[in-house]
Amino acid sequence: MKEFFFVVNPASANGTTRVVWDEIILFLDSKQLNYDYSLTSGPNEATTITRDAIKKGYKKIIAVGGDGTVNEVVNGFFDEQGKISIEDVALGVISRGTGCDLIKTLNIPKNYQGAVETLITGNTKAIDLLQVQFLNKEKQKEKRYCVNISDVGLGGYVAQRVNHTSKSGGGLWSYLRGTLLSILKYKNNSGIIEVDGKVVHQGEFSIVAAANGRFFGGGMELAPMAKIDDGYIEVITLVNMGKVELLYNLSKVYKGTHIGHPKVKHYRCKKLSVSSDEPLPLEIDGENPGFGGVSYGVVQKAIKVIC
User: Fold this and answer.
1) What pTM value is reported for the model?
2) Pick the CATH number of 4-122 from 2.30.30.240, 3.50.50.60, 3.40.50.970, 3.40.50.10330
3) Which family is annotated (predicted)?
4) For range 115-133, the mean pLDDT
5) CATH architecture of 133-300
6) 281-304 pLDDT, tens per residue?
């Protein structure tokens, strides 16, 4: 059995991974790594490929793609009943996406050479996952694991826009442009926010985010206090901000200095739910699998990551 199995999304990084993967192969061979790989051909296929690889006995599963690809691979660590398949399997990441936000929290180099060196070193860390229950696009209840950050409201709306436009400008520009355009068109949602069973807000909101990692949206430090292995969800809410306020404070989110603004609230909890009479734009690790209402729980030290 070969040591590594790479799950490669050739469509990631605006399709450039299809070409760069050939370079990565040459680099892997130069390091004499023992590996197999498979290329994905469509959405959610990385989950199926990962499950099959784990069943075959591979112990180090490496996601090559963006945060959405990593999310699909992580969900492949679990069977259809939500039980982890094999406890001694570890996740690795070669980041080839638009946002590349998860690696900022895990301190994994963005360039593939550095990421491969991290895989060779082989140090692992147990991290938490968020368990998310939402309505999928067929309006059926679905559960999925989130590695980094999930939110409803403006962030979900931004992700929809970014995922349906060219990302050739790179992560920072793609998300900044998407955020600016979304703020101009976005209308605040309305709902009920419950933290550990207690209602903390009822009414309009701009965003409700459940954070496991610190960064989202191509480098915004949404949750600077987040620790990916502490067993808690960091909840960040922007309550009823107008368009001018959102635009004025956007630069603060990139710096992580928005915490403390009177309309920005922070909670630390084990469970979060957001309910509404309207479908809420939802994103999980940069992808749009469905809509809120949504509920979150935390699974402490659920998987191991090579970092």
Assistant:
1) 0.94
2) 3.40.50.10330
3) Belongs to the diacylglycerol/lipid kinase family.
4) 97
5) Sandwich (2.60)
6) 999 999 999 999 999 999 999 999
